[in-house]
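Our working data are protein records whose layout never changes between entries. The record below serves as our worked example for the rest of this section:
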Amino acid sequence: NNIFRARRTSGASTITMQVARALKPRDRTYVNKLIEVFRALQLEIRYSRPEILQMYLNLVPYGGNIEGVKSAAWIYFKKDPDHLSLAEITALSIIPNRPSSLVIGKHNDRIVQERNKWLQRFRDEGLYTEAEIADALDEPLTATRGKMPRYIPHLAQQLKKSGEVSITTTISMNMQSRLEKIVADYSAAHRLQQIKNAAVMVIDNRTHKVVAYIGSADFRDTIDAGQVNGVMAVRQPGSTLKPLVYALAIDEGLMTPKTMLEDVAVNYAGYAPENYDRQFNGPVAMDYALEHSLNIPAVRTLKLLGKEALVDKLSICGFRQITRDQRKLGLSMVLGGCGATLEELTGLYSVFA
């Protein structure tokens, strides 16, 4: 028909051919049309019809940079496709045929006219009840283009690296929303102390699943590095490795919680650790040293245990930076002289909880 009339008068692509074109767009030429036919045959051999229809619904154009029914439903109606009314889903169904001339928010009156034509056809064919059709015909179209929700943006970026099309998380949106507000309020309240950011990761100890993930106080903050993922950033862990050192010493039978440790000045080949307050407490029990986060007893314990034992255990637990740096790490690692991420530390502490 296009050849005889010397112009494009109508489309002649099947849904599978449209999927092939959407997967790899090409200029509209007769050669490329033949390529689309070949690609469509390959798709039909490889996938079932329901799978091809699902691909089409995920790729169907809605003008601009909007692709897929779900994206359009969220951008225009702020809801999942499953929750759309008959009038809304009908409106979305007619737009892909003319995505440039039927734009929600610009051509709503025109879209309503086309929508109602199809609703009348549904009535004539008895697809819906009279009441359902009447309600759909009376429903106004006031939608405009909105913004897509940006939930857990740092985790979304991290998961995107997997290359998977669909990823199911274990995030509790109720807890996530509450913690986002807490973190934002905390950062705002301590800004004068130069604390401008924070990161949080919460694990459910019963299931060991991540239920909250906050990489920064505000992802959109470009001044204070809001897009830096604090959960994955390598930082000095401070005293957070002390519980593991004492636990390993107990497992090896080297001490008990009541074993006395000397909190006095010590020097290991030029390395002389000090407590935070630069004071000495003399003989202290191991549980007291842990409770008060004393530095010297922790270093003494690591010396007794052996640095290699700690490094090996942390490597098994997935501490990537420590694994890379293991040859140059020393006794100071128990006081934070190494690199770890919040994700690694949270996973480690779920063992103790």
